[in-house]
Amino acid sequence: MAFNAQLDKMAAEIGQVTQSELGVQDLIDIIDFKNSSCLNNDPKTKLEDVLNGGNIKSEADEQLLLTLSFQEAVKLKGIAFKVNEMKLEDCSGPKDVKLYINQPNMDFDDAENLNEVQAFSLSEDDLKSGKVIDTEFVKFQKVNSLTVFIETNQGDDEQTVLSKLQLFGIPRQRTNMSELKKVG
Hints:
The chain is an alpha+beta fold. 18% of the residues lie in helices and 34% in strands. It is built from five helices and twelve strands. The protein has helices at 3-14, 19-22, 47-51, 108-113, 124-129, and strands at residues 25-26, 37-39, 56-57, 64-82, 87-88, 91-92, 96-101, 118-121, 132-134, 143-150, 159-162, 164-171. Strands 1, 2, 4, 7, 8, 9, 10 and 12 form an eight-stranded antiparallel β-sheet that branches. A four-stranded mixed β-sheet has the order 3-11-6-5. A hairpin with a 2-residue loop joins strand 5 and strand 6 (91-92). The two termini are 27 Å apart.
């Protein structure tokens, strides 16, 4: 079941406004690929691959730094990581992840030294299912770029692999406050 459908079903069960009514969508069409990048990826893989369901793999060590720029500011609601094969030769899926916003020129030193906006650990089940991790929504209201720092992986292996990365949110330009409904 798609992300919005799952959330809509849960919302209907408790009488809340659905994600679709709020305008939450997959943000792939709003990503500015020309101004997005990935550091420490294997040269045979690229950022566009992982956003379209192909693999991206780290090169020198387990860390990856993905910077995603948007064509317009977005409200980021959730992020999903998926790994098709949990354990490949000397690599495994992401474990510890840190998110940064509006820092489009970050490098690994910055990722180690700056305070993240949100940090979390992924389980193997999260990666197998592609579970959507909710952002701390109030902190992700005006996101022009998102930097995803994958710090460690599941198996403490030399390399990290990621099969799909999805971002869910609301384009700010399209948020019409007059259409929001009072709940409760």
